[in-house]
Amino acid sequence: MTSDIRTYIAATAAAITLASCASGSRNASGGELTGVGAATWAEPSPYGMVLVDRGSIKAGPQEADSLWGLRADAHGISVDAFWMDETEVTNAEYKQFVYWVRDSIIRERLADPAYGGNEEYKIDEDRDGNPVTPHLNWAKPIPWRNPDEDEQRAIESLYRTNPITGARELDDTQLNYRYEIYDQSESVRRKYRRDPRRREYNTDRPVPTDVPVITKDTAWIDEDGEIIRRTISRALSSEYDFVNTYIVNVYPDTTAWINDFDNAYNEPYVRMYFSHGGYNDYPVVGVSWEQANAFAAWRTAFLRRSIGREGVHVEPYRLPTEAEWEYAARAGVSDNKYPWEGDLPLTEEKGCFYANFKPQEGNYVQDGHIITSRVGTYAPNDFGLYDMAGNVSEWTSTAYTESVSAIKSDLNPEYRYNAAPEDPYRLKRKIVRGGSWKDVARNIRSDIRMWEYQNEQRSFIGFRCVRTNIGFAKGQGGNKKKK
After folding, report:
1. Phi, psi torsion values for 44, nearest 5 degrees
2. N or C: which end of the chain has fewer CB within 10 A?
3. pLDDT band for position 136 (50/70/90)?
């Protein structure tokens, strides 16, 4: 099933199912306390995702390994229920994001007076004629066939001619996606409350009189077409100060196949891995942590637009926290070092592999693959999740520091650090999990962490998304954990 069809089904299900209904208060008699109902809504099962029920686990390795310099670091954590992509995001799915960005740019240009100024590509009023924030009209198709002269110029402006081969190809340098994220976690901190009396509850101390200073991320494109990113500080003035703006070039770095491996002939992967249809169901790689976050933001916005209803809450797609990832990979079993039982990545009796990795030095093909494998090739773990070990390492939302285990809470653990562009590079490390097709068995364990810089694009790192589950029934997730 194609990514377009899958997304359409998910959006349609959301539009049908996502509804609000308020339960009224019970009739009060005799002045008794009966309570007042609140609005509730039922969120549909996101297509292609698995519901991981809330639970706890001893996270981290329970045994030291002097050979690898691994120390025992097991600690108890609990996580709430969440939805998780059953497979890593594929080339086909990520390509839908790339093409959406391409098509949005073309529509903007078709509406631009410099390219004919067709007003039908922009909506600036609702059905009743009331003005609305101008936005693209996605119901108006792009004239790919038989465009007029202005339309042809608008379309061709996003393509280039390869100076060597003469081939017409997409100009990936223009594929920039702008999005905004409201940082609710920061906005609700006590130190940022507008009423100074509510910032300090200790009555032995004076009421704060200073104006809080916030930091926020912003971005713009300069006259030369370069993306400029800044982290600015300023006095708090409104809730909008917690809206962060990002602009990210979304095209994967296909050259990672060469830059990750010195003195190797990997040019065919550069040309074909992301572009050729034969790799559609393979995990996307060459995507940075920043690009993975942009994809999650777009995926959320795409769903909200598909629902087409104002005021309906939709939990955002996001990268999993490290704790969520480990709990899901180990299927909620503290004794599991891998997504399966036992300490080996293959069955002893038949020698069948459980994952795509590098079984022996220089031998990538013993498990049946030389690089990545089609997602879902190997059996899922007990939670129904595929490729939680091997195939590609996966980005998490969690920032890396040597003391990250010690500073995180044991309830929904997470450590975030939004590094400013001017920060030292070591502060831009993010945790990756699961190991990849190029790793040995030890590195695909589910109980150990690795890290990578947030702007790096590797041929062995991909990602999958999660969404917090809106549900309150005990055991709703239905995951069967082994005792």
Report:
1. -70, 165
2. C
3. very high
State the Cα–Cα distance between residues 457 and 36, nearest whole angstrom. Answer: 52
Which pTM value belongs to this model? 0.91
CA distance 89 to 295: 10
Question: Tokens 């069955």, residue?
Answer: 347
Residues 6+ apart with CB under 8 A from 209: 196
DSSP structural state of residue 340 = S
Q: How far apart are CA 274 and CA 286, in angstroms?
A: 9
Helix (H) or strand (E) holding 218: strand 213-221
Specify the 3-state DSSP secondary structure of 125. strand
DSSP letter string over 383-421? TS---SSBSSEEEEEEEP-TTHHHHS-SBS--------T
Can you tell me the distance from the alpha carbon of 464 to that of 86, in angstroms, rounded to the nearest whole number? 8
Cα separation, 56 vs 409, whole angstroms: 13
Under a CB-based contact definition with an 8 Å cutoff, are residues 78 and 412 in contact?
yes
CB distance 178 to 136 below 8 Å: no
Six token digits for residue 56: 């706890």
Cα distances from 284 to residues 92, 274, 332, 341, 360, in angstroms, run 8, 7, 27, 28, 25
Residue whose entry in the numeric block shows the structure tokens 């339309």: 151
Q: How far is CA 25 from the centre of its chain?
A: 39
Question: Of 438, 440, 282, nearest to 346 (Cα)?
Answer: 440
Locate the DSSP E strands across 4-117. 20-22, 39-41, 49-52, 55-59, 75-79, 82-85
Give the mean pLDDT of 283-299: 98
- Placement of tokens 């939004």 in the chain: 418
> Cα–Cα distance between 129 and 230 in angstroms, integer?
38
Query: What gap in Å lies between CA 224 and CA 24, rounded to an integer?
Result: 58
| pLDDT tens figures, 41-83 | 667 789 999 999 999 999 999 888 877 777 888 999 999 999 9
pLDDT digits (tens, 9 = 90+) for 340-363: 988 877 765 566 899 999 988 889
More confident residue, 23 or 405: 405
Cβ-contact 324, 84 below 8 angstroms: yes
Closest CA to 473 of 77, 37, 50, 42: 42
pLDDT digits (tens, 9 = 90+) for 453-471: 999 999 999 999 999 998 7
With a pLDDT cut of 70, the percent of the chain lying above it is 89
Identify the band that residue 26 occupies on the pLDDT scale cut at 50, 70 and 90: low
Quick one: angle between helices 91-111 and 289-307, nearest 10?
Answer: 70
Encoded tokens for 274: 């992301």
